[in-house]
Fold this sequence. Notes:
two-stranded antiparallel sheet; alpha+beta; Prot_kinase_dom; transmembrane helix; binds adenosine-5'-triphosphate; transferase; 372 residues; Ser/Thr_kinase_AS
Amino acid sequence: ENERQLPFFDLSTIVTATDNFSLANKLGQGGFGPVYKGRLCNGQEIAVKRLSKTSGQGMEEFKNEVMLIAKLQHRNLVKLRGCCIQEEEKMLIYEYMPNKSLDSFIFDQIRKALLDWTKRFEIIVGIARGVLYLHQDSRLRIIHRDLKASNVLLDAEMNPKISDFGMARIFGGNQTQANTNRVVGTYGYMSPEYAMDGLFSIKSDVFSFGVILLEIISGKRNNGFYHEDRFLNLIKHTWDFWSEDRALDLVDSSMAGSYSAHEVLRCIHVGLLCVQESARDRPPMSTVIFMLGNETTLPPPKQPAFMLGGNHNGPLSSSSGTGPCSINEKLVVVYTLYKLVGGTCDNAPEGGEVERDWERDPIRNSTFSECK
Ligand SMILES: Nc1ncnc2c1ncn2[C@@H]1O[C@H](COP(=O)(O)OP(=O)(O)OP(=O)(O)O)[C@@H](O)[C@H]1O
């Protein structure tokens, strides 16, 4: 029992559990490194994230962060069971989620049919509750910073569980610069103030949540989205439909019309409130949950931030021939274009919540300011 409280696993335990990190057990490759499925000798299934060796963080810091994060518990968070450290190797051990990630359902032509409206609505509310816990209810106040459909895993009952929370802290340093592909793959979910100015706050998570919500309803990715031969993104698409009073045209056709139009419209409305251009206008997660579950009058959404998605073969590819241009180059282009067509740039989140990547103290990282 004593051992169970310590979240440290022996390397030999993990080697046995994963059959020496066999290819057959590899679940996938994320920006932090490969992930393996494992089975402990008591039969419990685990997922092992083997961190690439680029982390600059010391072992003691790493252990401390894992101990803090492992204490967070909520039915909509993937449980971090602990870690395994051996010389230069660092691994994170999570509970295993048999249904993989949300993106493997909502963007898959066959599997998306398994998600009817009731289930999709439950998933939306579940994600919202998980994020609220991170923002408000846990001992540590956590801004996730990388909320996206592939970071929402599904358990055996298809309950959504958020993963990868606390990675900024666990991984140390600036996680978004750990891997370029990672950034490119993720920025369809980034709020404009985070993408452009490195400002993150609970409101940048709200923005990402709004994108996931719209993706769940439409079955389309915010990035790399084409419509009638035009490169569009889902946010712009939603806004256009909404403005033309035909928001239901957004709904994933695999739901075959069997949904409550009233509920769907309300959800789209909430999604649009979450992706508003100005962080200040976006509701906090507590309000989001209230709005999803109650018949209150919602304020009209203001124009969202129209960021183009993360398709680096898309119209913003570098022409230099030296590989894709940097994320910031692309975003500057997009954002400048956006401003030229009349968007405003009043993006500063409320005072006190604004944090800048480059000003963060990597140890006493304010993403995790302790709550009283
Ligand atoms: N606890 C888990 N249970 C089951 N599968 C998991 C678990 N954690 C991760 N996976 C799977 O492992 C793969 C890699 O996951 P990971 O979170 O590292 O990367 P990602 O979300 O694809 O990208 P990123 O690192 O940018 O977040 C994904 O296919 C994911 O579904």
